């Protein structure tokens, strides 16, 4: 079994690619979704976040997402510490999940695999790219936020030029190049 990292910047379409792969019958671990679940349920994560940020990070036992987002996007040191609390638990969760899968390919969809050094844990890395304006428009529509907000979030991630040399496979999601054909070619190439 090959374990494949699937990544891309915010608004690139990596989740869309992941859903297509899943529909094709390949197991896909959605790291962002799983991390949201773990932040609510994992006692170690909860206690570490409270120790770092104070009790207001949880309200009535639920993560105070707006409070956490404000802390993450206003302070790089806190963002790195929070990532250091959450990402190892997500990686452990993925390793367990992957060990239970059967088949030739297993995918892990996550936004910041290169940024965290997690790309070294995969047999191959797939990067989904898109023009900056397309990414901004997609995120503004999806999250109902301002262009400035999207640009701030994008600035916290590596850009495509930094990631492309590290990826073994690059998919272009520019609304012109047929994405499904690229995904089919990717799977064929991975299975060779």
The total beta strand count reads 7
Fraction of residues in β-strands: 5-15%
Gross morphology: globular
| Count, helices | 9
Largest sheet: 5 strands, parallel
CATH class of the largest domain: Alpha Beta
What is the domain tally?
Answer: 2
Residues in helices, as a percent range: 40-55%
CATH architecture descriptor name of the largest domain: 3-Layer(aba) Sandwich
CATH fold group of the largest domain: Rossmann fold
CATH superfamily of the largest domain: P-loop containing nucleotide triphosphate hydrolases
What's the multimeric state?
A: single chain
Describe the 3D structure.
With 192 residues, this protein is an alpha/beta fold. The longest helix has 24 residues, at 76-99. The chain has helices at 14-23, 31-41, 43-53, 65-74, 76-99, 132-143, 147-155, 160-163, 179-191, and strands spanning 2-7, 28-30, 58-59, 62-63, 105-109, 124-129, 169-172. The two termini are 12 Å apart. The chain is built from nine helices and seven strands. It has a five-stranded parallel beta sheet with strand order 2-5-1-6-7, with helices on both faces. The model has no long low-confidence stretch (mean pLDDT 93). The chain folds into two domains: 1-27 and 103-192, Rossmann fold; 32-100.
